[in-house]
Amino acid sequence: MSEGKLKGVLIGAGYFSRFHMDAWQRIPEVQITAVCDVDSERANTYAAEWNLPTVYTDPDEAIESEKPDFVDIVTPPDTHRALVEIAARRGVAVICQKPLAPSLPEAQALVALTEQCGIPFMVHENFRFQPWHRELKKLLTGGVVGDAVYAVYWRMRMGDGWQPDAYLARQPYFRTYPRLLIYETGIHLIDTVRYLLGGRVTGVFARLARRNEAIAGEDSGVVVLEVDGRTQVILDMSRYNESQYANPRYTFADDLRIDAAGGSLRLTGDGTLFVQPLGKPAYEHRYAHENRGFAGDCVRACQQHFVDQLRAGQVFETSGPDYLLNLAVQETIYNQQTS
Ligand SMILES: NC(=O)c1ccc[n+]([C@@H]2O[C@H](COP(=O)([O-])OP(=O)(O)OC[C@H]3O[C@@H](n4cnc5c(N)ncnc54)[C@H](O)[C@@H]3O)[C@@H](O)[C@H]2O)c1
């Protein structure tokens, strides 16, 4: 690890990498020295936009020349394995976007490679770093509603998927993914629920559906999880139907309710949190959150976690092995759809 600032190379100059770069520029321990994209025009435009001194179109050359402390991979899922390998073989740390790989065996092979090479590896799983989820976790561990959680209900309504030209403007690849809702979005909810409850998923039941016939994959569905044999979780998700909130991409939760032995917690689509102890009226729980960056600035918080753990030599919350537990749940969900 170099002295002073951590040196990073960003790979993939598309839509979401703008949120990454905005966050890196607000993390004082990091300097991104170069961007790499196979599309040279994209790479050059991005370098100019973010004032980056060096541009590459070949990831191998980028890592060889820059000798960074880490690479940030923000490319499509089917490219992750090869890019991780380029970094891992040189002993360079990696933070990599989800979906980790197109299939579970490919994700397992990717994680195995990072373990064999012994590199620090974190999945850029940002939702659990949203400020309301960090606050909910604090309330749960603080025992504000008791220590036994009975049920979680999470209703997500994105409303960006009903139009004939759905997703084309922002993430056109959504239209052709054979698996969409869980693979791309629901996985965030699975990870966040595992973070909030801290347990093991012991049961899965799911029914998925495609509401917009113009796309290949599923865009709505209900998933029921059992955690540690006692907590019931309902993920009620749709990209088709709309939320009542002006910006459904702020919390990605039209309504999130946690019922526990001592009362309930509730998150609304505008980031407001309520606590309702049993037998008492609900009250608002105030905490800090702002509409900056992506979804409560969770990309910055996620990347700050990567930096903090990397510098301390500590395990990442969303390590490769831990993330495979999310993907095992995802696999069970999809396997149930063929029966
Ligand atoms: N966590 C989130 O909330 C979130 C949100 C949006 C996207 N994402 C994920 O981020 C990743 C990127 O998504 P996006 O919307 O920015 O995609 P995008 O298509 O807009 O950009 C991807 C870029 O990667 C480049 N690229 C492809 N293969 C490459 C390679 N081998 N080497 C270097 N560059 C390569 C492309 O030329 C393109 O510029 C995906 O995995 C996506 O699922 C995550």
Automatic annotation (TrEMBL):
<protein>
    <submittedName>
        <fullName>Gfo/Idh/MocA family oxidoreductase</fullName>
    </submittedName>
</protein>
<dbReference type="InterPro" id="IPR036291">
    <property type="entry name" value="NAD(P)-bd_dom_sf"/>
</dbReference>
<dbReference type="Pfam" id="PF22725">
    <property type="entry name" value="GFO_IDH_MocA_C3"/>
</dbReference>
<feature type="domain" description="Gfo/Idh/MocA-like oxidoreductase N-terminal">
    <location>
        <begin position="9"/>
        <end position="123"/>
    </location>
</feature>
<feature type="domain" description="GFO/IDH/MocA-like oxidoreductase">
    <location>
        <begin position="133"/>
        <end position="251"/>
    </location>
</feature>
<dbReference type="Pfam" id="PF01408">
    <property type="entry name" value="GFO_IDH_MocA"/>
</dbReference>
<dbReference type="InterPro" id="IPR051317">
    <property type="entry name" value="Gfo/Idh/MocA_oxidoreduct"/>
</dbReference>
<dbReference type="InterPro" id="IPR000683">
    <property type="entry name" value="Gfo/Idh/MocA-like_OxRdtase_N"/>
</dbReference>
<dbReference type="InterPro" id="IPR055170">
    <property type="entry name" value="GFO_IDH_MocA-like_dom"/>
</dbReference>
